[in-house]
Amino acid sequence: MKTKYMEIALEEANKAREIDEVPIGCVIVKGNQILSKTHNLRHTTKRAIAHAEILAIDEACKKLGTWYLDGCDIYVTLEPCPMCAGAIMQSRISNVYFGAYDSKGGSYGSNFNINDVKGLNHYPNVEGGILKEKCSNIIKEYFKTKRKNNNESKV
């Protein structure tokens, strides 16, 4: 099941790439029902908080009519940043599944682990590395292409 939902998150990441957004996709599931599936829209919306996870949490809350997402699982192609990890904690999502690790901004082990902070009101279960290569490659290829295009425009 985990790979099935991560594949859907990868489809969302591809949608982001198609509109020249950083290719990160996210899916929130409760039981076997997909509540939301989104992708990064920071550049499109010109909003710093338009990360895939924030958009997915917002959509899932609207669908359920509550901010409380207990019993929900979030699948995201890249390890959540501190902002998104905070939103995951605040919305009480039960399980976090991510693909690629993020050495620059990851908050579930790469830079620090938010679950190690004592005194928080919620600690989701976390599992990283699901379809790690696919999730990592889509981001690497995106930035490789961006750098190449940027260098070509300087010539």
Strand and helix layout:
Layout: H1 2-18, E1 25-30, E2 33-39, H2 42-45, H3 52-64, E3 72-78, H4 82-90, E4 95-100, E5 125-127, H5 132-153
Helix pairs in contact: 1-5
Question: Mean pLDDT across all residues, rounded?
Answer: 95
- Biggest sheet strand line-up: 2-1-3-4-5
Strand residue percentage: 15-25%
Global shape = globular
Counting H and I runs of at least 4 residues, what is the number of helices? 5
Oligomeric description of these chains: single chain
Radius of gyration: 15 Å
> Helix/strand/pairing class, anyone?
alpha/beta
Helix content: 40-55%
For the biggest sheet, the summary is: 5 strands, mixed
Q: Output the helix-strand order.
A: HEEHHEHEEH
User: Could you give the count of β-strands?
Assistant: 5
State the end-to-end CA separation: 48 Å
Could you name the ranges where pLDDT drops below 50 across 5 or more consecutive residues? none
